[in-house]
Amino acid sequence: MAKKHTLDTGSADYKRLLELQEKHNAAMAAHETLEAQLNAAHLDWLRQIVRQAVEIETAIKRIETDTEVLCRKHNGDWFESAQSVKTPLGTVAFRKSTALEVPSEELTMTLVERQDGRKVVGDENALFVAKDFLRVITSLNLEALGTLPEPMLALLKVTRVERESFAMKPAAVELGKMVKEAQAEQKEAA
């Protein structure tokens, strides 16, 4: 059963507690105002930076496109013996590469799993091993681990840590309750 406590609302310590809570509430309100002002200023600054970044990236893309058009125009003479041209300001190059396009990852994963243990089409000497082509991500389920008894957690090198924290929360304004208390006080005074 919970231990019941009593507060001496007339004591100096209780009055000090109320004073500290009042100061805390005022400081929290000031902090929230400052944080809101900071967020607004940050958003304005961020919008300016993003606008500038968009302008710069657009210019970069336009310059890269113009450069590629110019280099393709001279593909026969500038790039006759090499795939790149080095200038005092940098290098321009044509590079060939390949990429794999997978329209439906789920379908391809299913097909990979179905091929497991079969011969590789196009290379009859090779055996297809599905796990070589799939990545599996595993992580701990902390909620499930939390249900285990201490000896099992110790075996798994997991420690249950108890923490205690202290919190201050401004009182919510309950106008109805305040009116009732004031009315009761007025009746007692009368």
Question: What is the total domain count?
Answer: 2
Mean pLDDT across residues? 88
Number of helices: 5
Ranges where pLDDT stays below 50 over 5 or more residues in a row are: none
Largest sheet: number of strands, sense, barrel closure: 2 strands, antiparallel
Rounded to an integer, what's the Rg over CA atoms?
35 Å
Indicate the structural class: mainly alpha
Spatial order of strands in the largest sheet: 1-2
Fraction of residues in H or I helices: 40-55%
How would you describe what is shown here?
The protein has 190 residues and is mainly alpha-helical. The chain has helices at 12-73, 105-115, 142-145, 150-155, 175-189, and strands at residues 84-87, 90-93, 119-120, 123-127. The chain has five helices and four strands, in the order H-E-E-H-E-E-H-H-H. Strands 1-2 form a two-stranded antiparallel sheet. A two-stranded antiparallel sheet has the order 3-4. The mean pLDDT is 88. Helices cover 52% and strands 8% of the residues.
List keywords for this structure.
single chain, 190 residues, mainly alpha, 2 domains, two-stranded antiparallel sheet, two-stranded antiparallel ribbon, 5 helices, 4 strands, 52% helix
